[in-house]
Amino acid sequence: MDQVVKPKNNWKKRISIAATIVLLSGLGWLVYAAAGSQSISINAKQVDIATVTKTTFEEGISITGSIIPNRQTYLDASESGSVEQIFAKSGDELQQGDTIVQLSNSNLRLEVLQRESQLLEQLNTQRQTKILLNQNDLSQKQQIEEVNYQLDIQKRRYERNKQLFKKGVIAAQDYEEISKRYTYLKKRKDILIKVYKTDSLARETQINQIDASENRLTQNLIAVQNILDKLCITAPVDGKLSDFSLSNGERVDEGQRIGIVYNINPPKIEAEIDELYINNIQTGLSGNVQNSGKNLKVKLIKKFPGVEEGNFRVQFAFEDLKDADFYNGQTLRIQLNLSEPKQALVIPKGRFYSNTGGQWIFVVDGKTAEKQSIEIGQQNNAYYEIKSGLTAGEQVIISNYDNFKDYDQLKLK
């Protein structure tokens, strides 16, 4: 007969296993904690140490800009042609009207001559028509004057013979003949005046049309004559010639840009800024520029709309600029202020930021440096504002932390 085997009691074994696990976990935590707080010795001469100071601080950024002219005018060829003669070169200072280049175009010259001839012929026809109309007007006036003269004579004869007829001095036939002549002249005068008035209105309309046509033809003639003047390219304004590189015999097409005339004074600066700052940048902000050892003040006068390749454009003007010499395209470094001056704790900028993101820093105390949490506020080209975590007079390591960023303590030797 089989014997029933009772299961063994394993609770002691289970307790032993659990205790082992707890022990190992505790040892692991201690090892981790010891590793996290371990220190490393470094050469103090291989790191940059700076002092926390309280000073006047302005938030700002450093940007690069280029000098642009205050005004520039593009030179575009109004007519095509070949370069016949060059009178100026890039860099020359020009006065308005100075000749820069003379082009030649024989086909255009021939077309202009033919068009001039046609216009002059049309003008001549219009003027001849106007002369004929004026002659007709004069002829009608002469006819009316002649009738008035004859009527005046006939009227006196009529009045005299009328009295003589009443007295029986002259025959009725003679009186009737004079009376008819007088009546005829009066009617003729009325007809001539009526015709003259009608013709005068028509002539006035025609002459007005002719005058308008002559004006158009004259303007066309002037425009045609000016076409050849366009082959002579002159300076449209006072300024310096740039981007001009034509040579004798070179072909120039209509509308082709051949150069620029610009006036650099007073100069402006155009720059691009990272779009991260687009909401912080407004017109009216001030900045500083160093040029030839001089500190020059600038003001942001224009913010262009839109973003291209992660940047937006702005424009600056100089304030109280005196005796400054710039050239077109000159590169300048601008320190742009984004806030009003204030008193703040600051530390110099350093490469530590790339390792810590501004969350912590090593604070030096004698021969050691301890990791310390900090809060960084605004910044400019030279300094970080410290909002918390440090006090004035403390020293901090601001150089690169690549070799010891995982340590809590540094021993300086």
UniProtKB/TrEMBL annotation:
GO CC annotation: efflux pump complex
What is the protein's given name? Efflux RND transporter periplasmic adaptor subunit
Specify the Multidrug resistance protein MdtA-like C-terminal permuted SH3 domain's residue ranges: 343-402
Q: What's this protein's family per the entry?
A: Belongs to the membrane fusion protein (MFP) (TC 8.A.1) family.
Organism, scientific name = Mesohalobacter halotolerans
Which InterPro entries would you find in this protein's record?
MdtA-like_C, RND_pump_MFP
Q: Which GO terms describe its molecular function?
A: efflux transmembrane transporter activity
Q: Which Pfam families match?
A: RND-MFP_C
Coiled-coil spans in chain: none
